[in-house]
Structures
1.
Amino acid sequence: MKIFAHRGASGDYPENTMLSFKKAIDLGIKSIELDVHKSKDNNLVVIHDEDIERTFKGRGLVKDYTYDELKSFKCRKFEFVNNDLCKIPELEEVLSLIKQNNIYLNIEAKTDLIHYDLERDVLDLIEKYNLEDNVLISSFNHKCINIFKNLNSNIKYGALYHTKDDFKGFINVVEHAKNLGVYSINLNHQLVDKYIVDLAHKSNLKVFVYTVNDPILMRSMIECKVDGVFSDYPDLMREILNI
Ligand code: G3P
Ligand code: CA
């Protein structure tokens, strides 16, 4: 089972920063998840929200700042570890770390609330670092997945689903994902049960589940035989899996 360090080792370090990614790697975790947006000057930047305020000491939208401006913001949480590794990283910085450490990376394209024209730029970077076999690109925006697929069909893609509204019109999430032609369904844990996991596997779809932080939920996902989980505490998941 894959254990993705969700936004890095984000339970103990500032999420989506080089520090949280390095700490996950130091723990021996082999898969990492991160979120991508675009800055005003068209740099791919790694941050979860459209707005910087929850995680950094500033206000406003990521898309309205240049990267030089974005990297000057100090992180809001875990102030005790606040250093140069705790700024908003560029995707390229992270890809270089991923390459050096042979990590599997899930890049979530955050294009569902704000439209960014980022697909070609993300693929160019992946191709530059020869990471085609090491990445899974996902999005809640399934149109964005189709754009990626048309640009590069050799990479693996995951369709993210949060609620049943995300696959409205289909009898279940598996039928919807088959129609999209993706490698995996990346599900909110509330959508997961043994029936849907078995159904997905019969259709050759992998099932990755977010965000699995609670030990009871961790055990239940293991019982359902999901293919991977996203956790802010990847080391705890590894302990429970006994690997
Ligand atoms: O990709 C899994 C998970 O990260 C999706 O939800 O809100 O944490 O980006 P969110
Ligand atoms: Ca994410």
Note: Residues 91 and 234 are 21 Å apart (CA to CA).
2.
Amino acid sequence: MKLTLVHKGLLLVSIPLCFEVVSFALLLHLQNELQAEANRINNSRLIGDMTGKVTVQILILEESFEHFEGPGLATAKVRQVVNEMDRDFAELDKLSQGDAEMQQDVRRCRDELKAGIGDFEDLRKKLASGELENIKQVSKAFRTRFNDHLRNISHYGLWQLASRSALNIDTDKSTAIREQSVLFLKIAIGCSVLIGFIIAGFYTKYLTSRLQTVSDNATRLGQRKPLLPAISGKDEIGTVDKALHEADKLIDELQQARAEIIGMVSHDIRSPLTTIKCTADLLTEEMGEHLDPSSMIHLKNIESNCDRILSISRDLLDIQKLESGTMIIEREKADVQECVTAAIAATEGLRQNRGIQVVANLQESVAMIDPVRIEQVVTNLLSNATKYSPRNGVITVELKCEKNWVYLSVSDQGKGIPQHLRKDVFARFKQVDADDSRIKGGTGLGLSISKALIEMHDGKIGMEGVQPTGSRFYFTLPCNLS
Ligand code: ADP
């Protein structure tokens, strides 16, 4: 499944959110319980008040029938009290809803009241119709029965009701619920903050470690070092890392193709060029005397251009070998002095017509080197010094061996290299001046090849300015032969 960073962020945010929703629901439940408890207490108080009121009404009824001689006098008052009692019982019935036993008690009281009133109405009807004569005897019996009903109401009904409703007033329970709510609220807030911190920490670490890998891979891609393994996931960061890996693969393929083309072209150019150069040499040697000066100049041009293209193709082949890791140096015990002498001789032709002089101070310096490659480096430094020296300039070559290190320097009196460009001249295809290639005939490869060759010998190469004008290129090589 493709989850973007936004999806992942939302997913992580939803975890504390769910926790908060559940906590809120539980808190709401506790709140409802607390409310129900408060309602129950309130009901119980109202029931207590009602039972008190009904007790007073019972006393009024008892008193009304104390001197009962016939229903005529007491009827209105009795009816008023009985009606009130009936209303109160209806109210009590409502208040005791949800408690079956209490409701049963209320109904029992109501039934007793109805039975008493039924007796009273019966008696009243009988007296009115003249069916009963001895009112005194009858009223005594009626009072006894009526009082029994009232006693039942107060003893078995109201007393039960009052004591049951008192049982419902449980202040400890509401206090416990309130304490529980507060504790729960504290725990919920604490957990919510903790979960928030854990998730924020985890997500930040997750993101930064992935971004770090992408950033490392981008740096490695720039430096052409092997990339770190591709990071998992299909989010934006994973996509960028995948793109870097694809770019790396593509660059590898392009480099491979470029190396193959350079190798192929350089090889293919060298053979016909060598033939052309040999032919020009031969013509100069054998027919030199018979040729007019302008033809001679043309022949010399052919030779020098052949030399130039051969040197470029050699540099390109070297670069290709260095890039592909196939450049091999064959180290042997040899005197660097001999390499320097050979390089001075090889570049003599470049200096001849410009009056440039080489002053060499060379000490014997034996080291484990590939003499061919070291001569190539010195030749490059000398040919550069010659190219950039003024007419009749002096090139100073110094070779010494000190403290297990061979030190060679080539100084010229040329235009020098500005401070801020000095470290760049050892990079591939770098030239201080764009015109250098056109005017001096360079490619910008010589110093980068020299640097790689010296480093393969465990040495160091560098340059510095020379006063009042000029450059000094130098390298060191280890010469501890033990
Ligand atoms: P190139 O084939 O162009 O000489 P190099 O790699 O040998 O290539 O040199 C790179 C660049 O460094 C040159 O193009 C030139 O701009 C500068 N450079 C090298 N040697 C000297 C020097 N002795 N004096 C001034 N500039 C130099």
Note: The mean pLDDT is 86.
